Amino acid sequence: MNDVLRLENIEKIYNRGKPAQVSVLQGASLTVGRGEVVALVAPSGAGKSTLLHIAGLLDTPDSGRVSIVGQDVTALSDRKRTAIRRGQVGFIYQFHHLLPEFTALENIVLPQLANGIARTAAQTRARDLLGRVGVAARADHRPAELSGGEQQRVAFCRALANGPALLLADEPTGNLDPATSDTVFETLMGLVRDTGLSALIATHNMALAARMDRIVRLQAGRVV
Ligand code: ADP
Question: Most buried residue, 4, 27, 29, 87, by most Cβ within 10 Å?
Fold first, then answer.
């Protein structure tokens, strides 16, 4: 079993049984293999964020199965799901969501402390990650003192802090100007390839999607 992510027949309905009921996912299935980078392309409102949240164990489907690194997580307790999410899944959003009162370094150290890593080891890893994305000189700066591209690079480091097997990204460069978006995307792909990560990256940008291994689309609640 080489799949890092496996979604089988995922259904998600919001406001079930009410007039405002929305069937967002209607039997969506998808696998991401080890070291594979998959682009998830769909118009706004098609359910990309819902699918990513379910894949990252932040939300549960109404039916269907989710497996991470070969383990079926569907029936696990919240505690076990949280442990798998912390250790195996990294998230990147369109906005960096860094904690404003902490430095770049601390933003990468904190998730490691929450995962039981000792502070010194966590700091060493954080500095190494910042060096890899070219932001080492900004380690002691707070997010407000960083450019948009730098903020997003730090957010990449935070997502990789605990050495996840799976990276989930929702429009990771969608908030940046086109030129910055391009170089920041290159950085992300370099980081993913160097670490052998598997990734599912939602984007509207077909030029970026074309640089990934495979493109899947979300249409009428299914992956095609
Ligand atoms: P995307 O990321 O592709 O833009 P989303 O997954 O955010 O799409 O949303 C898909 C659909 O589900 C949209 O029509 C949205 O309005 C609806 N939706 C998302 N979250 C909720 C919620 N918590 N309650 C009700 N409807 C929701």
Answer: 4
